[in-house]
Amino acid sequence: MKIFILGGTGFIGQHLCRGFLKKGHEVTLLIRSNKSLLRVPPGATAVLGDPLKGGDWQNIAREADIIINLVGETIFHRWTEEYKKRLWDSRIESTRRAVECLTAGKLLFNASAVGYYGDRGEEELDEGSSPGEGFVVKLCLAWEEEALRGLSKGAQVFITRFGIVLGKGGGMLKTVLPIFKLGLGGRLGSGKQWFPWVHVEDILQAMLFLLEKNAEPGVYNFVSPNPIRNVDFTKILAKVLKRPAIFPVPRFALKLIYGELADVIMASAKVIPRKLLNLGYQFKYPDFETALVNSL
Question: 47 in a domain, yes or no?
Answer without folding.
Answer: yes
